[in-house]
Amino acid sequence: MRKEFIGALVETAARDERIVLLTGDLGYMVLEPFAERFPDRFFNVGVAEQNMLGLATGLAEAGRVPFVYSIATFASMRAYEFLRNGAVLHALPVRVVGVGGGLDYGHNGVTHYALEDIAIMRAQPELTSFVPADADQAVAAVAATSAVPGPVYLRLEKDGPRVPGLNGRFEPGRAEVIGEGSDVVLVATGSCAHEAVEAADQLAGDGIAACVAVVSSFNPSPVDDLARLVQRTQLAVTIEAHYAAGGLRSLVAEVIAATGAGCRLVGHAVETMPRAFTGSRALMFEHHGLTAERLVQSVVGALAFQEE
Questions:
Q1: pLDDT at 307 over 70
Q2: Residues 211/179, Cβ–Cβ less than 8 Å
């Protein structure tokens, strides 16, 4: 996803001379295509994320469109006050690129797990967040930033397979729906969408009709699409590589409460801080129940409970 992102950014920058790229001493073997193509628009500010956001704010005030690139934990939290009081307060087009969302940096431990970034970014009503589910959506999300006059948080995962049936569809404020089943709606964000599609396929083999709603933007959030989906089913199951509070599960719960839908909600998220346990992303997903198999178990159990 990172290489597709930088490819899309190079293409966009070729059309828009205002675009500049800043990095906090990260992105080696990824950012070189931009640095080589536009050396006068590339800045390595060193390990200084707060300063990087301050520089980006000044550049945006001067008419540039800065993209600032760092690991998602550092990009979202270390400079959060600078983002809030700079680009958000003054409605400036700063694009914060957080790489390695969720549990991507599995072996690096909790300091590198971005598990609250969606929640804190979503808390700012005038800050748009894009959370691509795969590389094709990442390309579309870069293009979509051009239409956002204010700040954007772009949450990228390091790698991940393409999501079957998604085909790069991406529209801010919309949920991209895969399938038509109404027994259960599986709501996913990020690469967890791939697990949701796989779970839907497995459920179909058991005679359970599921559709998948891929949520890839917050502020604007796909409230209307989610409202339609939860009103036509009795069960919604969310999956996200994020803490349970403030992210996707919270959004769906808000929609259910606001619409009065009689829909049960089951969430799959990281429930506690991952202390003293590290491993590959696949291992971390398994440990925290973010797999297709665990989704299937939840759906089957929840539907059986409702029938009793």
A1: no
A2: yes
Name the pTM for this structure.
Answer: 0.96
**What is the DSSP track for 5-21?**
HHHHHHHHHHH-TTEEE
DSSP 23-51: ESS--TTTSHHHHHH-GGGEEE--S-HHH
Domains of the chain: 2-156 (3.40.50.970), 175-307 (3.40.50.920)
Report yes or no: 102 and 241 within 8 Å, Cβ to Cβ.
Answer: yes
Q: How confident is the model at residue 158 (pLDDT cuts 50, 70, 90)?
A: confident
- Residue 81 gets which letter from DSSP? H
Question: Among residues 305, 234, 297, 238, which one has the least CA distance to residue 266?
Answer: 238
Q: From CA 291, how far away is CA 296, in angstroms rounded?
A: 9
Asked if residue 148 has pLDDT above 70, the reply is yes
Ramachandran category for residue 298: left, alpha or beta (phi over 0 → left; psi -120 to 50 → alpha): alpha
Q: What gap in Å lies between CA 262 and CA 148, rounded to an integer?
A: 35
Size (the chain), residues = 308
Q: What is the DSSP annotation of 138-204? A: HHHHHHHGGG-SS-EEEEE-S--PPPTTTTT---TT-EEEE----SEEEEE-TTHHHHHHHHHHHHH
pLDDT bucket at 308, cuts 50 / 70 / 90:
low
Q: Which two three-digit tokens encode residue 58?
A: 């000044």
**Cα–Cα dist 300/230, whole Å:** 18
